[in-house]
UniProtKB/TrEMBL annotation:
Name assigned to this protein: Hydrogenase/urease accessory protein HupE
Calcium recorded as keyword: no
Assigned keywords, A-Z: Membrane, Signal, Transmembrane, Transmembrane helix
Keyword Endoplasmic reticulum: no
TM annotation in the entry: 266-289, 325-344, 356-378, 387-404
Signal sequence extent: 1-30
Region of interest (Disordered), ranges: 193-222
InterPro entries in alphabetical order: Put_HupE_UreJ (IPR032809)
Amino acid sequence: MSVHRLGKLFAGIGGIAALALAALSFPASASAHAYSASYTTLEMTKSGTVVTYAIDELSVIEWVGGDTNENNMLEPEEFEADKAPFAEVFNKNVTLKIGGQVQEPIEIENYYLDRKGDATQVIMQVRYPAPSGGQSIALSDKLYETDAKTNYVNLLTIKYGSGQSTAALSGGDRNWAMQVTDDEFAALPADMQDGQAASSSSGEGQADVTPVETAAADASTTESSHSATAGWYSFFKLGMHHILGGYDHLLFLFSLLIARQTLKQHLVMITAFTVAHSITLTLTVLGWISVPGSFVEPMIALSICYVAIDNMVRPQVSYRWMLTFMFGLIHGMGFADILVGMNIPRKEMGVDLVSFNLGIETVQLAIVFIALPLLLLLHRYKHSRKFVLAGSSTALLLGGMWLVERVFIG
């Protein structure tokens, strides 16, 4: 490597270090993922309907405040003080209907913090009336509806009797509904087993059950929503929204594409990234591997910095597919984080996982097919190198900021 290229390399590495002071001035809430996910379990019994709602601690702080010492955590006293405001926000935005009529909560049965590893959830368990045979039951979620900066999804698990199903409520139509038949009502248990809902947000205690197919339908519907299409499509949309809200993943893809390469090299590289992240996405969701987010998220930021520097010191790259495959394994674990906490029935796991991954691939391939012809055309001009340097410098700045934030701020 020439002295000139070494100078560029060290300048790039030095740029990451220089970003430390600037990055520390950003709030901890500034993130490459403008994404918020809640996990809801709706369980029907003959004595009532219990909705267990779990969401990350920082989202609750955003909604109702309460973090008086500004450490981005809820201490016991702060947590208790937030109970009433949080319940008010929940009741205003998450609506349960039975027979087309809005139901008021009977009581808050449980309210607690669940701290596991580097993730903390606020969990609220609310009891509503029970549906009768022949009635519709529906849930709608309007949280973050007017916040264009936050990509929000409610990962819903529905349980009744031996039946269980899942749905991903995202985008502008965050409604779920189904019709409870007389036979289904007769099969409902008298009441919930102790502790059953408390474990729902963690994904433990999952049973191999007969899936109950659901549809994202109008909440006032009186028709059966037993639609096999809605389940896979909701996860397909979730995959699309997830990568569109994952700015670090998009920036990594951009950094890969802007370097001068042949069409064949581009296609091999994208294939390597797709195969790699599909492998770790699947293994992570199935629980066969488990790597903490405190390692995965900084590594994703580091991958952006590495590729950006590589673009800056090498006018034309080759054999990048091997490097891309390695980093793709890391990105796949990042894609999986949203599904790990969801209690997906085993019989639906395959369809939901494939649908989610197809949603990611659809957006990714659309970006590639749009950007690649333009980039190949751009590289025909003598000043294209300046564009590569400018784009890579921007990627290095953002990746460096995220790296410092994720390592030192959390």
